[in-house]
Amino acid sequence: MLGLLQLRDQWSVPILLNLQRPQANAPEVPPVLLNFSQTGAGLKIQLDLLVDRDFQPAVLRREVLRALLLELSYRALPSLPAGTPYVAPPDWLVDGILTLDNESPEVFEGLDSVASHPPTLGTFLAQHPGLLDSQSRALYRACASALVRILLEHENGHAQLTRYIADLPRASADALSDLQAHFPWLGTESGAMEKNWSEHIARVAQERRFALVTFAATSEQLDECLRTKIAQDREKKNSLTLEETVRVSRPNIDTKAATELGQRLTLLAARAHPLLRPVVVDYQLAAELVARKKRHSLARRLAGSAALRQKIAARMSEVDDFMNWYEATQAKTTSGAFRDYLHAADSSEETPRRRDALSVYLDALETQLQ
Fold first, then answer.
1. 322 C-beta neighbours (distance < 10 Å), count
2. Separation of alpha carbons 105 and 141, rounded Å
3. DSSP 276
């Protein structure tokens, strides 16, 4: 984080990290507890984490980063009165920093999704990620990553973000106004600010499109391209896709549409999943030939490409089934892909626990021994 903000190592507030396992005599200990207190020697930050069988390493990274941001915010305020409530770093800042160097395929796909219809900046800043489902959470992380990247890429962005973090203890309830005050280049009016946000997030999404996308995302984008109409039949009654154009006799080809389709497929081929890249390239070459009105043998060639794609998709489905079976029955560690689903399923099936003293003790003892 020091490198991100271009700061020197000048930590002044001690941060204590306390990892503890479930204890039978303390069954109600929360999984995460951040204590911010005033001592005789100054401020102190203590992070208590409960390490149980459901503990996730991502939680440790997130909460440690939150504590570090809190230290940056309060290092210039060592003499706060005891009992003063602290202002926690915003969730978008924590998520944005975490995803800068760890952009998962979900983040890239989320950027593609929000680039065309981004949420308003005010709506995004007001969201609480803890209340979102897994898909909305991925979109939130994508927006957070884009916002932090936008702020840092601007001239003096590192210094402005550092000042924003330092001023968090004096932040108002209006997150949008605080952001506007520290980053005036975003716009002085809400309309201009939202316009800049939409333009910047679209640019960031475009720049990040060099990364390879997943097999499913490649297949989805290829289907979208293949639904594009690039010609009409001889009577000009029906619009035709690329695959339909190479099969009919004497179609009326829209050269501009076919050329644009070839360009879209070229961009897709550059970041397509390796298994589907040859198929995408075949369709790209076919679109370019159709644009030049050269359709000889294209019907047979695209039929072979479609058959190859079906075989690859069937094999990928078998691989996914095997990997899911292996993770569920054989693997000693999990990928975490089903963690949210399994947690929700377990929560819905849990029976109400008895709260008498003996039952609470036995439940805690069972957790400790697992």
1. 10
2. 12
3. T
Per residue in 91-102, pLDDT tens?
999 988 988 776
pLDDT value of residue 340: 64
Distances (CA, A) of 286 to 211, 220, 303, 347: 25, 19, 12, 52
Phi, psi of 288 (to 5 degrees): -65, -40
* pTM, entire model: 0.62
What 3-state DSSP class applies to 230?
coil
Question: Where exactly are the structural domains of the chain?
Answer: 2-78+86-210, 215-325
Tokens of 98: 């975490």
Average pLDDT over residues 340-350: 61
With bands split at pLDDT 50, 70 and 90, how would you rate the model's confidence at 338?
low
Q: What is the mean pLDDT of residues 33-49?
A: 80
Tokens matching residue 49: 């984490």
Radius of gyration, CA atoms only, the chain: 27
- How far CA 170 is from CA of 73, 76, 125, 143, 177, in Å, comes to 10, 12, 17, 25, 13
pLDDT higher than 90, residue 365: no
Residue environment code for 231-248, b if the CB has 16+ CB neighbours within 10 A, otherwise e: bbbeeeeebbbbbbbbee
pLDDT at 350 over 60: no
| CA atoms of 88 and 168, how far apart (whole Å) | 8
For residues 326 and 322, what is the distance between their CA atoms, to the nearest angstrom?
Answer: 6
